[in-house]
Specification:
By secondary structure, the protein is an alpha+beta fold. Helices cover 42% and strands 17% of the residues. A four-stranded mixed beta sheet has the order 1-2-4-3. Strand 1 (25-30), helix 2 (36-46) and strand 2 form a beta-alpha-beta unit. Helix 4 runs antiparallel to helix 5.
Length: 188
Amino acid sequence: IKHQDFLKVEDIDQDIKDKLSGEKVVVMSNLPYHITTQIIMKILEESQKVDRLVLMMQLEVARRLTSKPNSKDYNALSVIIQDQTKAKYLFKIPKTVFQPRPKVDSALIRLDILNQKSDAFFYQFVHQCFRQRRKTLVNNLNQGYEVDKARLKVILERIDLHDKIRAEVLSLEDFKKLYNLFIEEDLL
């Protein structure tokens, strides 16, 4: 046990190596609700030693992290988590089992890390695609990258997507195809 602010840890892997002889580890935690995403992203971005995370968190966040396309919970964070992990929603933990009782339900999730490097530019692109959820992908990309809407429609057609599509229906693979086309077309 190390008593310090996790978000201020400078070298997660060195701490693991110092205590566990450099083995891969499973992180198990009841995450503080207000910094759940920050903690997960710090581990994903900075550690090569963490193999899996088993985490209790606010139910709403758990649903976002593990949601699939075409669901109301699917967002940029869902895509980013799916890019770096195999995410699995395990079960709901009702607020009634805690003393004192919190205001929200919790859930347990499992994230098996896929051992790939994060791509900050790809993640910025995904965030732009979801910038305004009720807008079409064409409108979000037009505003974020100042690419002509007619050109965006042609790019979407190249990967069999129509011009009225919204980000919430795209799979991780669709986002990667679209991102790669933006790179090919030198639009980023």
